[in-house]
Structures are given as structure tokens and as C-alpha cells.
Amino acid sequence: MAVTTLDARTALIIVDLQKGLLAMPGLPPLGGVVGNAADLAAAFRRKGLPVVLVTVAGGPPGRTEHGRVLRDLPPDWAELIPELNAQPGDHRVTKRTWGAFPHTDLDAHLKAQDVTQVVVAGVATGIGVESTAREAHALGYNVTLAVDAMADRDAAAHDHSVTRIFPRLGETGTTADILALLAGTA
To answer: Against a cut of 0.90, is the pTM above it?
Structure first.
């Protein structure tokens, strides 16, 4: 279902747009994704709506077939990219899991702000973004996914999340769709 509405207390969650992840090989060109995420953040701030900036600083314990890829990280790994123009009023979340909710204060923060809906963007579509959206949905938030403000190094994973998973978790839309709703022109 295409995005139809935004609740009065909607928060923006931008997942893992950070120096370390964006420096990894294999991601598609991210100029449009980064620009769209930055535009969303600026619009949410202008409306006085919560902006949450999530970074990953390591991985959970346990074995996987891909090995433990998030260890021995460089010092600037979790620094947000400057294009997001992080502000003192933005809520920062540092995670060590795929999604932004487990073992963080994100749910408590959103509830304290009376948030009922989240717009999710960032990287990687099939990992951090999808996990965060699944968790938000399970916690009872209305979920909107800004499909042109996200990317994945695996094009098939991105397409699978956008076409098969996201419509089951909430509504999808473009940055322009969401900005129009924020402006009250949609």
C-alpha cells in the first residue's frame, strides 16, 4: 500500500548512514539515498518531529556462516555522515544488533515522545532497515518506509524487502510522497 497518511506524532529513524558502513565495498551509488535521507531529516526537524539517528558499533555474539564481520572497527566507523546535519535535539541510538530496538532506549524514547508512527530509511535495506521496521511493527507503531532513502549492496535483497516484506509491515512511499504529507499537500 502506498503511504496514505502520517500520524501527528511521527518520528524519522535513519539507520546506519555512517562512515564505516558507507565505506564498505559493494554498495550502489548513494548520492540520492543520502540526499533523500537528509531532506527527510531537515523536514522532520522543521515540523518539530523527532529524528532518530542510528549507528551500529559492532555485532552481536554468535556464529554465522558469514563470520563475525563487525569487529576490529576503525575509530571513525560509527561516525554519522555529515550530510545528515545531526542536531543536538536528534536522538542518537548505538546498536550492536541488526535492528535499532533491541538493547537500546529507542522504544522508551519514542513512547515518551508520544510517537505512534515511524518513517524508516537508511542502509542496508534487507538488514538494518528491515529489522528496525519489523521491530517497530511488532511494538505497535505504524510504519512507513521511504524506499528511495535506502539501499542495499544486494539488489535482490533490496527488491525483496521493498516488494514482499515492507507492504506487510506498513506503507511504502518515496521521499517526495512523505514530504508532501509532512507539508500537508498530499
So the answer is: yes
